[in-house]
Amino acid sequence: MKKHTSELGAQTPFPIVVLVSGSGSNLQTLIDAIAKGTLSARIAAVICNKADAYALQRAQEANIPTEIIAHADYETRDAFDAELTRRIEKYQPELIVLAGFMRILTADFVNHFYGKMINIHPSLLPKYRGLHTHKRALDAGDSEHGLSIHYVSAELDGGPIIFQQSVPVLADDTEKSLAQRVLVQEHLAYPQVIEWFAQGRLQLVDNQVILSE
Ligand code: GRF
């Protein structure tokens, strides 16, 4: 495990900040993986743009500090992103993890954190960037669908891909059943990929993702 030395010289696990907007089932798998010891990270804070998101309750139950930044309180995207930057940097994370954070970020914000911010997206990118990915996969008659974990770049869902996992699309699938099959795989993949970061195994060199042994 990669250890981080604080100002007091104490060794602490890899600090991450998780950004959420909704149910937070991916956040929960990170909390559970840390509790089980399969993810050697520490969630320094959960930041949310919706005061009623269930993800906030999950964080509070796990005694994780939470921050709410209601986007309606900010007149511009720049103002919101400046406040988001300030709140993230308070916790000095090694990695910023987007887990269902439903907010388009400005290029300045994304560039500021480039290489240190990742997202999980429910499609096999570059297919189906944006919303309604499961419906789009069904409408297209795809035989497989899946998830991608990628670095966040200024291009929406377009950053360098770290990991992908496919699932079959079954003849009787609905949007809900397909989403559920993908989500099961998301819950396995995200803690694993973040553990690679915690172990110092992932690097971005000239926009190429390198996973060392
Ligand atoms: C997941 O499907 C993820 O891929 C997408 O948003 C959803 C978040 O779900 N970015 P949850 O809030 O983690 O349950």
Characterise the protein shown here.
This protein has helices spanning 25-36, 54-61, 77-90, 107-112, 133-139, 175-198, and strands spanning 3-5, 11-20, 41-48, 66-68, 95-98, 117-121, 144-151, 161-168, 202-205, 208-211. The longest helix has 24 residues, at 175-198. Helix 1 crosses helix 6. Helices cover 33% and strands 27% of the residues. It starts with a strand and ends with a strand. Strands 1, 2, 3, 4, 5, 6, 7 and 8 form an eight-stranded mixed β-sheet that branches. It has a two-stranded antiparallel ribbon with strand order 9-10. It is an alpha/beta fold and 213 residues long. It binds 5-O-phosphono-beta-D-ribofuranosylamine.
Envelope shape: globular
What can be said about the biggest beta sheet?
8 strands, mixed
Beta percentage is 25-35%
Return Rg in Å.
17 Å
> What string gives the helices and strands in order?
EEHEHEHEHEHEEHEE
Helix-strand makeup class:
alpha/beta
List all distinct small molecules, including ions and cofactors, that are bound in this structure.
5-O-phosphono-beta-D-ribofuranosylamine
Number of E strands? 10
What is the helix fraction of residues, given as a range? 25-40%
Low-confidence stretches: none
> What is the end-to-end distance?
14 Å
Mean pLDDT: 95
Count of separate DSSP helical elements: 6
What key phrases describe this protein's structure?
33% helix, two-stranded antiparallel ribbon, single chain, 6 helices, eight-stranded mixed beta sheet, alpha/beta, 213 residues, binds 5-O-phosphono-beta-D-ribofuranosylamine
